[in-house]
Amino acid sequence: MAAKHRKASSFWEMDEARRDPPRTCAVSGKRMYSNEREANATAAHRMTDRESAPVQLRTYKCLYCGAWHLTSKDA
Ligand SMILES: [Zn+2]
Description:
Elements: H1 8-18, H2 36-47, E1 58-61, E2 68-71
Antiparallel strand pairs: 1-2
The structure holds zinc ion.
């Protein structure tokens, strides 16, 4: 692939938005993850993101939608 046009930043932002469909839980309104691993990976990523508030996240399986969610609440 030739790298003639170096607009990598906007390109990736668009790509990220495109492949990230807004699937949210009808009950909790939280982002849905199809499995625990995906939820954990996202939680780990978020907890190391210094741009946002440092929070402790944990994952749980939703009883209503069957998907995994992240929560910052203590157990
Ligand atoms: Zn749910």
